Amino acid sequence: MSKDANSAEKRIDRFFSGPGARADDWRDLVEAAKSWARVGNRAAYDAALAELSVTEEFHGYPGLHLMAALREAAAAGDGSTSFALATKIAQALATRSFRQHAGDWSAKDEGNGDVPELVPPSFGGHTARRPYFETLIVTGVSSSQWPALAAEWRKLRRPVDGFIYEPVIVGNLEDAFCATMLNPDIAAVIINEGFGLRSRHDAPVLRSIMATAGLKDESDASALRLAQIIKRVRPELDLYMISNRDVEELAGNPEANVVRRIFYSVEELLELHLSILEGIQDRYDTPFFDNLKKYAQRPIGTFHALPIARGKSIFKSDWIRDMGEFYGPNLFLAESSATTGGLDSMLEPTGNIKKAQEKAARALGADRVFFVTNGTSTSNKMAVQALLAPGDIAIVDRNCHKSHHYGMVLAGAQPLYVEAFPMTEYSMYGAVPLKTIKQALLNAKADGRLDRVKMIDLTNCTFDGHIYNTRRVMEECLAIKPDLIFLWDEAWFGFARFSPFLRRRTAMGAANEIETWMHDPKSAAAYDKQQAEFGKNPSDEVLLKTRLIPNPRQIRLRVYQTNSTHKSMSAIRQGSMLSVKDVEFHTVEQQFKEAVFTHASTSPNQQLIASLDISRRQMELEGYGLVANAIEIAFAIRHAVNNNPLISKYFRVLGADAMVPAQYRQSGFTDYLAAGVNWANTLRSLDEDEFCLDPTRMTLVCGTAGYDGTQFKGILANEYNIQVNKTSRNSVLVQSNINNTRSDVAHLVRVLAEIAGEIDQGLMQGGANARKTFEARVKSLMTDVPDLPNFSHFHPSFRGDAGSKTNEGDIRTGFYAAYDVAGCEHIRLNDPEIDRRLKAGPELVSANFVIPYPPGFPIMVPGQVITQETIDFMRKLDVKEIHGYDAKEGLKLVRSEALAKIGRPKPAAAPKLKAAS
């Protein structure tokens, strides 16, 4: 950026900065204005105003008028007016009152009695208000005409409009891109022809990002090119084009399908205004929730089996009326077991639930979406049951959620477990290396069993935040078997769809990129070139070390993604969505319906369905800003903990370099907050690295403070009212989400500082013995950690039809072996009999799933041979919650005699007698 009297060194491309950073900039301006007004330090104010003005160009409020008023007051040397106006604007931004109060848009204090809205509207008797958004206008007209242009757009507002918007005007492609990235309030974009390419501001990071789009000179600044760029980074936005050329030809161009509507010149400005409002209304509509509200207001007699409906049994009761007073009448007025009268059936939706699911599919980039009201555990089991048949092989992350393992049992499919990389120091696993997955496929191919491998089932992102390179995994696996089905459990990652940086790492985001690539003629050429380089029979070694290119002519793209909507969006607990992008879905649609019938309740909760509908609306209209804020909150926590001299003595948040081994960070990326890191090298990491770390998931090490994870989680909850996500042996998982605020950060940091201070004081007052005890405790938590056990193998009794190189097994038969009480035995964990049998046999074979929390995944599955490392791990575990294990009875094992019966060949069926003639 050039320096002159009215500018300062500020970059417009710092996309790490979010709403909080903007608020900080305004706070700094107010402080500088106060200093000027009181002690005459004007230079600091001028510098702060010049710096702030650069990025404020991309926001509708305070807008051109108020920013001009600030500059005029400064130029007049009026410190008092500058302080008053800066304070007014900062307060309006903090409280968001400018969205509703006209007085906030005036440079003068009109004394209209407007009070900033500090409490959410639902907590008082506020009347309905029109939602506010901003519309980006990209134009080639001179910036001197922008105030007049903005005034013309404001004239289009009418009292009957359901929404109100403010124009944001820019004059070149780079500024349009920056506005789209930096302003989460933008909900629609109008692109005129004739704008320039380069910003007048300094933006080196932006230039490096834009270089990938091939933008070199002014001729590249076309309206269609900009539309495609914006749609790629923020697909939820409505785009409108105004062209002075042959609009009929442009409208017929398939590349223009990213645009909602094309207008000729400015002949129909009111139509454009109405189109913008209609586009917002389309996203705002919530078919099921809207109908549920109408249903709740109708006088209805209920003669069905749901006494709580309409709330009469609640509000007339002397004993449970407090429940009605707590929840309010609408909850009960909206309850019904009916699927008629404006409602719909979850099992076979044909009305408003179907419409709501179609809108969710649009929002998530899927072909279709299913709402699920009993959690992603059920979504996973539905997908597994619908897509796998008995005897099918699925490559499964052994550390995945238990629902996948149980799904294999239900389907009768054979899991071929693959191992994630271990993080022994923190008693957790990462994710499964691509080389491991490819090796499993190549082994199946060598055994002549590749046709039976139907699915790859992986968790993205993992509990601890490891994100796969989903596109690379799918492309390389499809290069080995082009019709593989992929099930990505993204329970914790649903929000990522609404981040332009993280979206590429989601299942649906990657599937859409692969689909686009398949239709590019260059894809077939790239495949043919690699095949020519390989020759006829490339070795496994070559295939494992090469980034494989699939044959775009043969790919059958079949991708499923499950999201716990309630974990990262505003849905009620157990709200889940199952997204589908499967070219062969028509072949499995009926069995998918059967899976829904099997698992879905016939009495789904109406409020839960409505919350899924509402969560989609919110994310389409403001999800971009909410996710940006969640990421910014996470960065604030990471920085505050790791840079505080006292807190960092005992606690730290692990960076990407600690969570992802170097061999999986091919770009050399270290951490989001490392010196010199910006979105350019972060994007390189997201594109190239095998694994990345979800910035919103923070592993807070507490073992260095002498606390194990479970203990520290309890202290935070019971003594400080702070709830965290999960624990490991020496850490807790802190997660930021769209609900968090800077106040939450302050509370957490204050608590950690208080705990660190108490530790510090205790060690100083306790003397040498206290320090010795503390160091021994830290050593036991951080150094003397048990090795993490890998999956061993299925017992031969459950591998009757297995291959020689593959490790799949009949988990269903293993599971039901536990039903034979006489065929099972129990041995306590510390019984010497365990050690004797590990050395001399017979083998110990698990009869059930054993799942300790933490780490939260099965360390034993039915039919698995138990090894020494698993026993050692269990003996060192100090967790209280272990599903599938009763310490009093011990390990449940399948007896050798029962295994022998299972392993025997089944007798041939007796021949059927011919019917008498």
Give a short overview:
This is Decarboxylase. Keywords: Aminotransferase, Transferase. The protein has 917 residues and is an alpha/beta fold.
- Specify the biggest β-sheet: 7 strands, mixed
DSSP strand tally: 23
Terminal CA distance reads 99 Å
The count of helical stretches stands at 33
Q: Low-confidence spans: pLDDT under 50, at least 5 residues? A: 1-9, 907-917
Looking at the structure, the CATH topology of the largest domain is Aspartate Aminotransferase, domain 2
Indicate how many domains the architecture comprises.
4
Q: Which strand-content bin applies to the residues? A: 5-15%
CATH homologous superfamily classification of the largest domain: Type I PLP-dependent aspartate aminotransferase-like (Major domain)
Rounded to an integer, what's the Rg over CA atoms? 31 Å
Strand order of the largest sheet: 6-15-14-13-11-7-8
Helix content: 40-55%
What's the average pLDDT? Answer: 90
Structural class: alpha/beta
